[in-house]
């Protein structure tokens, strides 16, 4: 068709004008391509961040919800000066405490749970003639009696601790969850339910430096492994027997057989509770055993014991704390679990929370912000691009009225003239699109990562403003601290001091590569916009009166 | 001068259908007003144009000569009366086809495409006609340049670089390129020197007499009028 040939010739004939057009289209396309790539990458990141990753979750008692319910109605649920009735609260906390059986009730495959494990943690005191705990400075404390009195110190809140879900014990793990919530005593005795529980040990992953880990049978009760620090301090070797005492009653001694010595993967020697922390919260003083050992000793969550603190106050605490963890194959299963468990009758005084999901949501904030920004940018760029393309087309065609006149005068039908203009426009914009997509593809990754890092920075700044991570759901602290926190409800500020590590954990790389989908979308949008402006051109051509050629001079 | 190689195959036109005595172009009581209800620029005009003759249209400026040409060339339709081409009313024909095949127009201001070369301008008209040519278009176009006495080395020159007289010749060549039956020229000798005028007029005479075309020329020049076969005087409007 000669009109197409003529159009192609015209493209090369009007080099200057078309080059300008190509540059404009390319700039718009590049911006839109980058924006689109970011939006797609953000969606991708959102969808796949938890792919191929197991998710762990816990059910915990929501202190606030409980507090609200134990308070007299009328004070609109807030602690407006009035102190909550502590004993009533403690009572209701104790009543509401989930037992192992309760936890296991929900750990069904029907609910999407892939597996579950738990640890039971009890605190132990140093026995008269037994081993000495390691204090914060890594030395053996001289007096075991003195050390057992710092019971009211705040415990570390577990939420800051990543767990094994994201790769089975990463090197940057800090602190622990669950077991490390012991607030009294000199040692913590952590009973694991399975190897999976050990993999997600409260103090992070560890390796055996000698001996081997305990089994889980009845016969294996009394078998423990101790940390290399504790072993060194007390000269313990594999096969030795160690003696420790009950935290409440130092006359009750327990004797364990050391079957192995472990070494924590992280060099997290400092207990996180500060100088006032109990030595029991020092990872070095954690004695690991199987859950059967604690059961055998009667150190189970359903029993209580009396503890006397330094001020002579006696409190009743649970003999042991249970930390039950559900493992899911993915986010979908977790979401299903939350839904199903609620349906199964789990009250709203309990929260279901997942470190993994929370951390994921957290890291999504920056990505979401970037995605929103990119979406806005995409819309603006496309809108501006559409307008610019229209305006250019109209100007272009007005300038070429004479050409339309000549062509119609020599008998070229208007439809063909319009086609010629459309083809010209299409060729020019396609070249512009190709160049723009190329430029966009080359720059999308660095541009998006630069944008993301500024978002992450902003996010971190916001967090440091708050002194903790933002947007934590209330009571979203992990399951285990709730149980032990009952007696000291009012003195611990909620939230995590360690905001820094969350910033670290945020996704700071976005794979905003331009893929075929991006290219396809850009081409589609580009062609649609081109056809739209071609339509404008066509309307212009159709309205042209051939007679006007007599008035239009070159 | 007597180069008759421009033998583009005549398109399947019902030329034979012409009744005896029916002129190729006839104005039947034609009136035209640019605006609806405006003054009649052409006022109840009747005339016949014969093939094989050069007809000169004369008249004072503003008499409506250009307007009449636009009616004949089918750029617009009369507000009253009919323009008949081979007995058919132009108003009922596809005037795009009519313009591209049956007539060749040399406009007062040439109306060539300035961005295109001489050859491209001529060949674009050939393409637009949709006619089939028995020889390469380029060959025909180059022969047309010979016919209008434009040296062949102008073939690839852009129109912008040509003088008025040269553009005039290209416009004529373009009008002839698709071998139309009617050739219309609006003041084709307006701004040319006498020698060139004569040369151009000779081309038109040859077209009419040798190639049996109907040639219609609007002119103010008495010499041209004298040289032509028929003169059609258009009265000034009152
Ligand atoms: N597009 C138009 N709209 C309205 N009036 C027009 C238009 N073109 C021409 N006219 C009017 O029609 C009349 C005839 O104009 P036309 O161009 O046909 O004259 P002409 O005989 O060709 O004159 P000239 O010898 O100067 O070329 C003039 O009075 C002119 O003002
Ligand atoms: Mg005129």
UniProtKB/TrEMBL annotation, chain A:
Domain of life, per the record? Bacteria
Biased composition, class Low complexity, residue ranges: 141-157
Q: Which UniProt keywords apply?
A: Cell membrane, Membrane, Transmembrane, Transmembrane helix
Q: How does it sit in the membrane?
A: Multi-pass membrane protein
Could you tell me which residues belong to the region Disordered? 65-85, 131-178, 463-502
- Could you tell me which residue ranges the ABC3 transporter permease C-terminal domain spans? 377-447
Question: Which residue spans traverse the membrane?
Answer: 20-39, 373-395, 421-442, 519-541
The record's subcellular locations are: Cell membrane
Main localization category:
membrane
* Gene Ontology cellular component list: plasma membrane
Q: Where is the composition biased (Polar residues)?
A: 68-81, 477-493
Transmembrane helix among keywords? yes
Q: Where is the composition biased (Gly residues)?
A: 164-178
Q: Name one GO molecular function term.
A: transmembrane transporter activity
- PANTHER family documented for this protein: ABC TRANSPORTER PERMEASE PROTEIN, MEMBRANE COMPONENT OF TRANSPORTER-RELATED
What name does UniProt use for this protein? Answer: ABC transporter permease
Protein's organism: Bifidobacterium cuniculi
UniProtKB/TrEMBL annotation, chain B:
UniProt xrefs under InterPro entries: AAA+_ATPase, ABC_transporter-like_ATP-bd, ABC_transporter-like_CS, ABC_transpr_LolD-like, MacB-like_ATP-bd, P-loop_NTPase
What do the Gene Ontology cellular component annotations say? plasma membrane
Gene Ontology MF terms: ATP binding; ATP hydrolysis activity; transmembrane transporter activity
The UniProt record lists the ABC transporter domain at 25-237
| EC numbers, comma separated | 3.6.3.28
Q: Which PROSITE patterns match?
A: ABC_TRANSPORTER_1, ABC_TRANSPORTER_2
Provide the top EC class: hydrolase
PANTHER family in the cross-refs: IMPORT ATP-BINDING PROTEIN, LIPOPROTEIN-RELEASING SYSTEM ATP-BINDING PROTEIN LOLD
As for family, the record states: Belongs to the ABC transporter superfamily.
The protein's name is: ABC transporter domain-containing protein
Q: Which organism is it from?
A: Bifidobacterium cuniculi
């Amino acid at each position: 068709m000669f009109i197409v040939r003529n159009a192609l010739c015209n493209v090369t004939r009007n080099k200057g004008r078309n080059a300008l057009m190509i540059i404009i289209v390319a700039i718009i396309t590049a911006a839109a391509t980058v924006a689109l790539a970011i939006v797609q990458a953000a969606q991708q990141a959102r969808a796949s961040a938890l792919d191929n990753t197991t998710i762990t979750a816990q059910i915990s008692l929501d202190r606030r919800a409980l507090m609200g319910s134990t308070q007299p109605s009328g004070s609109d649920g807030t602690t407006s000066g009035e102190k909550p009735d502590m004993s009533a609260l403690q009572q209701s906390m104790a009543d509401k405490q989930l037992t192992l059986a309760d936890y296991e009730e929900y750990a069904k495959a029907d609910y999407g749970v892939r597996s579950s494990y738990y640890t039971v943690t009890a605190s132990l005191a140093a026995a008269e003639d037994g081993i000495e705990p390691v204090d914060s400075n890594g030395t053996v404390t001289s007096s075991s009696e003195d050390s057992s009195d710092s019971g009211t110190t705040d415990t570390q809140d577990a939420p800051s601790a990543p767990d094994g879900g994201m790769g089975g014990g990463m090197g940057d793990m800090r602190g622990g969850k669950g077991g490390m919530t012991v607030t009294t005593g000199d040692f913590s005795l952590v009973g694991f339910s399975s190897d999976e529980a050990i993999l997600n040990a409260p103090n992070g992953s560890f390796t055996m430096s000698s001996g081997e880990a305990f089994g889980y049978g009845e016969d294996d009760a009394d078998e423990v492994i101790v940390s290399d620090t504790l072993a060194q301090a007390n000269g313990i070797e594999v096969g030795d027997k160690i003696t420790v005492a009950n935290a409440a009653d130092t006359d009750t001694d327990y004797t364990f057989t050391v079957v192995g010595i472990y070494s924590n993967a992280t060099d997290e020697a400092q207990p996180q509770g500060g100088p006032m922390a109990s030595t029991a919260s020092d990872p070095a003083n954690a004695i690991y055993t199987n859950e059967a050992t604690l059961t055998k000793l009667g150190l189970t969550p359903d029993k209580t014991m009396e503890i006397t603190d330094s001020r002579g106050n006696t409190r009743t605490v649970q003999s042991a704390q249970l930390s039950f963890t559900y493992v899911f194959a993915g986010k979908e299963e977790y979401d299903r679990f939350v839904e199903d468990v609620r349906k199964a009758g789990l009250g709203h005084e309990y929260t279901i929370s997942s470190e993994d999901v929370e951390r994921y949501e957290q890291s999504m904030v920056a990505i979401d912000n970037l995605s929103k920004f990119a979406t806005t940018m995409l819309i603006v760029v496309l809108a501006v691009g559409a307008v610019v393309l229209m305006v250019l087309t109209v100007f272009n065609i007005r300038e070429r009225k004479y050409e339309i006149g000549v062509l119609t005068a020599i008998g070229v039908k208007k439809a063909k003239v319009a086609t010629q203009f459309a083809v010209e426009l299409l060729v020019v914009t396609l070249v512009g699109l190709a160049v723009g997509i190329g430029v966009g593809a080359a720059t999308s990754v660095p541009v998006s990562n630069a944008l993301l890092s500024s978002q992450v920075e902003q996010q971190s700044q916001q967090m440091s403003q708050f002194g903790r991570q933002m947007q934590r759901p209330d009571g979203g602290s992990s399951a285990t601290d709730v149980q032990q926190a009952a007696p000291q409800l009012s003195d611990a500020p909620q939230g995590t001091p360690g905001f820094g590590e969350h910033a670290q954990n945020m996704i700071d790389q976005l794979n905003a590569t331009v893929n075929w989908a991006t290219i396809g979308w850009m081409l589609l949008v580009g062609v649609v916009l081109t056809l739209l402006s071609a339509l404008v051109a066509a309307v212009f051509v159709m309205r042209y009166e051939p007679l006007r050629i007599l008035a239009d001079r070159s | 001068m007597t180069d008759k190689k421009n033998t583009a195959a005549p398109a399947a036109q019902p030329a034979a259908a012409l009744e005896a005595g029916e002129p190729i172009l006839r104005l039947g009581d034609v009136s035209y007003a640019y605006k609806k209800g405006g003054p009649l620029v052409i006022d109840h005009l009747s005339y016949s144009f014969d093939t094989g003759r050069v007809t000169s249209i004369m008249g004072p400026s503003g008499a409506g000569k250009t307007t009449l040409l636009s009616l004949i060339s089918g750029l617009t339709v009369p507000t009253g009366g009919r323009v008949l081409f081979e007995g058919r009313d132009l108003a009922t024909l596809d005037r795009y086809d009519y313009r591209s095949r049956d007539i060749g127009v040399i406009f007062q201001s040439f109306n060539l495409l300035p961005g295109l070369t001489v050859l491209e301008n001529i060949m674009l008209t050939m393409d637009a006609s949709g006619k089939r040519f028995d020889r390469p278009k380029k060959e025909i176009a180059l022969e047309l340049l010979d016919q209008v006495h434009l040296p062949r080395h102008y073939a690839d020159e852009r129109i912008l670089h040509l003088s008025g007289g040269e553009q005039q010749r290209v416009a004529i060549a373009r009008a002839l390129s698709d071998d139309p039956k009617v050739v219309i020229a609006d003041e084709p000798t307006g701004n040319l020197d006498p020698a060139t005028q004569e040369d151009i007029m000779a081309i038109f005479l040859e077209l009419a007499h040798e190639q049996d075309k109907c040639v219609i020329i609007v002119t103010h020049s008495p010499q041209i009028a004298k040289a032509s076969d028929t003169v059609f005087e258009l009265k000034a409007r009152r």
